[in-house]
Amino acid sequence: MSTSPRRIGLVTNPTAGKGQAAAAYPRILAGLRERGHEVVDLAGPSAGVALARAHRATHNGSIDILAVAGGDGMVHLGVNACAQTDVPLLIAALGTGNDIAANLRIPVRDELATLALLDAGTTRTVDLGHVLDDQPRPWFGGVLYAGFDAVVNDRANRWRWPRGQMRYNLAVVRELPTFRPIPYAITVDGTRVETEAMLVLVANATSYGGGMQVAPQARMDDGLFDVMCLDHVSRAEFLRVFPKVFSGAHVDHPAVHLIRGRRVHLEAHGITAWADGEPLRPVPLTAEIVPDALRVFAPDRLDAP
User: Fold this and answer.
1) Same domain? 70 vs 22
2) MF terms per GO, please (predicted)?
3) Fewest CB atoms within 10 Å of the CB: 13, 157, 161, 175?
4) Confidence of residue 180 (pLDDT cuts 50, 70, 90)
């Protein structure tokens, strides 16, 4: 059991999980202090400010651990602050979508279990995706995607109601009638393919969007991306196949192609890539897998859910 006091930076998204993160914040704070840890509040008026504070703290030695409370967006912040440092990431998975935590076998919506992970002191190193750019958030832990799913995510994020998976499903129904297949050029480890597709995603983890198993064989510690491409299908066929993504059965469809690799260059026009549920940057882009780029508090097993 890890009992020695630590300086722990804490960032919380108060709106995550329909306010669950905000409700849990006092309990997390009290639990850390009861264990003798010094808590450094790194929250800011915006996610950008919070990231800058967290990044500075992890790189100047002012904290020993970074703790984030929220969904995949907060994990994305933590990943970009802790990547390639000695500061481990502690995740309180309290969002609507907690896919990265689920891939790491971290308990979801249970801040007491998160504190128990801290007590146990067990950390693991996992891979991260790195977008070759000088932007402030070049790292991602879960899935990078650019296509119909990114367009749907953008629409869903502009809605305040409904919440959770239903909001995403309704956004699919709204976007699908006007969506046109996108011409892509995809280069994986030097092999280039041109195609028209509904979407292309680069996965370090199995799932995104609150449990959609888009790359069911992906692992966060195997040194490889799983690249998934969905070729153009009719609207009726898309709606028929879409529900299968929650079990991973979509990979058997002839329009779905999976390839594994370490470096992916994605070319398209007029598409913004998203990663870990956050808008990232316009395509084209290049992403590389970086093995053992992050230390994270997690149980022993890191196999895919």
Assistant:
1) yes
2) kinase activity
3) 161
4) confident
Residue 129, token pair as written in the block: 């995706």
What tokens were used for 299? Answer: 């149980």
Tokens, residue 254: 């002839």
Residues constituting the chain: 305
Burial degree of 126 (CB within 10 A; 0-12, 13-18, 19+): buried
* Same domain flag for 109 and 240: no
Per-residue pLDDT reduced to its tens digit, 44-64: 888 899 999 999 999 999 999
Which residues, 6+ apart, have CB-to-CB distance to 271 below 8 Å?
Answer: 146, 147, 150, 151, 182, 282, 283
Cβ–Cβ < 8 Å for 32, 26: no
Domain-ending residue, one of 52, 87, 121: 121
* C-alpha to C-alpha distance for 189 and 288, rounded to whole angstroms: 10
Residue carrying structure tokens 């995510």? 153
Residue 138: CB partners within 8 Å, gap ≥ 6? 80, 130, 131, 132
What's at 53, amino acid-wise?
R
The residue type found at 124 is R
- Number of domains within the chain: 2
Give the tokens for residue 280: 């990232």
Report the predicted TM-score, pTM, of the whole model to 2 decimal places.
Answer: 0.90
Token pair for 296: 């994270």
Task: Clarify whether residues 195 and 264 are in a common domain.
Answer: yes
pLDDT by residue (tens digit) across 231-254? Answer: 999 988 988 888 899 999 999 999
Residue 3 has what pLDDT? 57
Residue 21 lies in domain: 7-121
Q: Which of 269, 226, 199, 215 is nearest to 129 (CA)?
A: 226
Least confident of 170-184, 243-257, 275-289: 170-184
CATH no. for residue 263? 2.60.200.40
> Looking at the structure, do residues 151 and 115 belong to the same domain, yes or no?
no
First to last CA, the chain: 26
